[in-house]
Design brief:
This protein has about 625 residues and is of the alpha/beta class. The protein is built from 25 helices and 15 strands. Helix 5 runs antiparallel to helix 7, helix 11 packs across helix 13 and helix 11 crosses helix 16. The structure holds FE(4)-NI(1)-S(5) cluster and iron/sulfur cluster. Iron/sulfur cluster binds next to loops.
Length: about 625
């Protein structure tokens, strides 16, 4: 058996793997060991888009064979890649759609338990879409905004509304290529159509639709999701939070909320505050109710309300092994089916809440946004009852780390500029004068095929050491939070220029922006940097780079592609779903940059990832004439 220390650098998860082995409970790490990936599928060199196949091509000699229909390796890998982007985009846009449903309910008055919490953001978003705001009530503006944002999904012709935020030159590139998204539904539909048997069989043309679909995610579905979440639940501002499994409390009713739609945890917070439920917990012998987030759901409420967070994707089973979790409740995305089994082993109540995502063996308590507390009250009652009947040995890892999170792009603007001249000028100035070399987004999942957290942490350390400011989202943010790098004190690990800026402003060198849909906040930062001036005219001119070192989800591929199409050099780690030595590879990894986009990069080792990113940033600095 592989040693836990070789599986993960997360100490709590290591402890839980040891315990799981003692308890005879299988975790996904164990299956990752015993199930080797198929070498052909690993390079995406197979096609099963029709029943003449499946056709498997030779990854060692990719042009030696074609599919039965004649599809070449480039067609096959491009189509497979396109379908990953379609699936990832669908996930983010459907999540955004759920937020839009909620917003519509609030605007129409049919949803009473939520309200517009941030009318300032509402006005800003409306103004960014040229919706008149002067002398109008919040509700009037909200009604117009709803209609405008709905077009992000449903529009069949024209340009999605939020492209108004894209720097002019970047948008010009998209127009020239004919890839400005019309509406997300149309782009996803067309992507699926074009990748079906016998349709688009030119990898360059397929790539155009891949970009168009991905852009409908980044500047569409994800951005709408972030904006509406901020409007309804508040725009994040820095907050100190505790993370890691040590946030579980043995003498409390522990409830973990894992998934992606913020509404579940927002409603849980209200229920957990109810005096009668608190009393019920006390009557059961507990000191109180302890709400804890995981994955992106957790990041949403950590950023907004400082709710503690127990860990990232690779720790969602491990945390159950503690025996201290009375209920785990989930909604959509990144929820491993085997959580049901592990919950059963530890008698943890496992509850699905979304009609889209039921799991065999789980209890289903549906969340209805018109009456959300009915669902969350019931979850708490079930958790209290598990607490009362706890009969498993409990072993909670003692590790906890404190950090500052909740950096929205609005707050970054305010914080950098101070109250007198809020704006991105200070960031741009510090990049131009060389104190900050550039900026990097380090984001994305963890993956049992890659030592958990290791690449995230080593990469970020290397970047900040080289004076590169790091922004983060998703499971990556949690890796760095656990490692203690989201505190202002971490500036000690930064290079002298970055450290000076961090100390002056009082920020960590690693800024957590929230969940994966909040990668849209990174796009907004990039757009602001271009508009502020001095760093070129397009996003592709900026000295920035992105990385998802331990990615696993199709959503990550969609995100990577929208960053590439927006102009960012984007490095992925540990594996990449295309066949090496193909024209399609060359297209993604080299040629796109020549058309005014960014491009993809790949490396397995975090120091090598950093080297690629720094080299790109230095090249951009040189092009801008700010290398000294
Ligand atoms: Ni992002 Fe959130 Fe994590 Fe990966 Fe999954 S939780 S949306 S996909 S695993 S970062
Ligand atoms: Fe094979 Fe072509 Fe059918 Fe794909 S579409 S399975 S390559 S015959």
């Amino acid at each position: 058996l592989i040693r836990p220390e070789d599986i993960t650098t997360c100490d709590s998860t290591q402890q839980m793997i040891h315990k799981a082995r003692k308890d005879g409970v299988e975790l996904f790490f164990d299956r990752a060991e015993s199930m080797r990936p198929c070498p052909i599928g690993n390079e995406s060199a197979c096609c099963k888009h029709c029943s003449m196949g499946p056709c498997r091509l030779n990854t060692k000699d990719p042009y030696s064979r074609v599919g039965i229909c004649g599809a070449t390796i480039d067609t096959i890998v491009a189509r497979n890649f396109g379908r990953m982007v379609a699936a990832g985009t669908a996930a983010h846009t459907d999540h955004g759609m759920a937020m839009l449903d909620l917003f519509r309910g609030v605007v129409e008055g049919t949803v009473k338990d939520f309200e517009i919490k941030d009318p300032i953001k509402l006005r800003e978003v409306a103004e960014s879409l040229d919706i008149p705001t002067e002398d109008r009530t919040t509700l009037e503006i909200a009604k117009d905004l709803y209609k405008a944002l709905e077009l992000t999904y449903t529009q069949v012709d024209g340009e999605i509304p939020l492209v108004k935020r894209v720097p002019a030159k970047t948008l010009e590139t998209w127009r020239q290529e004919g890839i400005v998204p019309r509406g997300a539904m149309r782009e996803i539909m067309e992507m699926m159509h074009r990748t079906a048997m016998g349709v688009d069989q030119d990898y360059e043309n397929i790539t155009k639709q891949i970009s168009r679909t991905a852009l409908a995610d980044g500047w569409g579905g994800s951005m709408v999701s972030t904006d509406i979440s901020d409007i309804l639940f508040g725009t994040p501002s820095p907050v100190e939070v505790e993370v890691d499994m040590g946030v579980l409390k043995e003498d409390h009713v522990n409830i973990i909320v894992h998934g992606h739609e913020p509404i579940l945890l927002e409603a849980m917070i209200v229920s957990a505050g109810s005096p009668s439920l608190k009393q019920m917990a006390v009557d059961a012998g507990a000191k109180g109710i302890n709400l804890v987030g995981m994955c992106c759901s957790g990041l949403d409420v950590l950023s907004r309300h400082g709710i503690p967070h127990a860990g990232n994707f690779s720790s969602t089973e491990a945390v159950l092994v503690s025996g201290a979790v009375d209920a785990m409740t989930v909604d959509i995305q990144c929820i491993k089916q085997d959580l049901a089994k592990v919950c059963e082993c530890y008698e943890t109540v496992f509850i699905t809440t979304n009609y889209r995502a039921k799991i065999e063996g789980a209890m289903h308590v549906e969340m209805d946004e018109h009456n959300p507390l009915e669902c969350t009250d019931e979850i708490i009652i079930k958790a209290i009852s598990r607490y009362k009947h706890r009969n498993k040995a409990i072993q909670i890892p003692r590790r906890k780390a404190k950090g500052i999170h909740g950096f929205s792009h609005e707050y970054i603007k305010y914080m950098l500029g101070g109250s007198f001249r809020s704006g991105y000028e200070p960031l741009n100035e510090n990049i131009i004068n060389g104190r900050i070399r550039g900026a990097a987004g380090v984001v994305g999942c963890t993956n049992p095929r890659s030592k958990q957290d290791f690449s995230h942490v080593e990469l970020v350390k290397e970047l900040i050491k080289n004076d590169i400011l790091v922004v983060q989202t998703g499971c990556s943010q949690m890796a760095l939070a656990k490692a203690g790098l989201t505190t202002p004190g971490a500036a000690a690990l930064a290079g002298p220029g970055l450290a000076e800026v961090c100390e002056t402003v009082g920020i960590p060198p690693v800024l957590g922006l929230g969940a994966c849909v909040d990668n849209s906040r990174i796009l907004m930062i990039l757009a602001e940097m271009v508009k502020t001036g001095g760093l070129g005219e397009a996003i592709a001119d900026l000295p920035v780079a992105g990385c998802a070192p331990e990615w696993m989800s199709e959503k990550a591929i969609a995100i990577g592609q929208y960053f590439v199409a927006s102009g960012v050099f984007t490095v992925f780690g540990h594996t990449f779903p295309i066949t090496k030595g193909t024209k399609f590879e060359k297209h993604l990894f080299e040629e796109l940059a020549g058309k005014g986009f960014g491009k993809w990069g790949f490396a397995s080792d975090p120091i090598e990832m950093a080297r690629l990113m720094i080299a790109h940033i230095d090249r951009k600095r040189k092009d801008l004439g700010i290398d000294k």
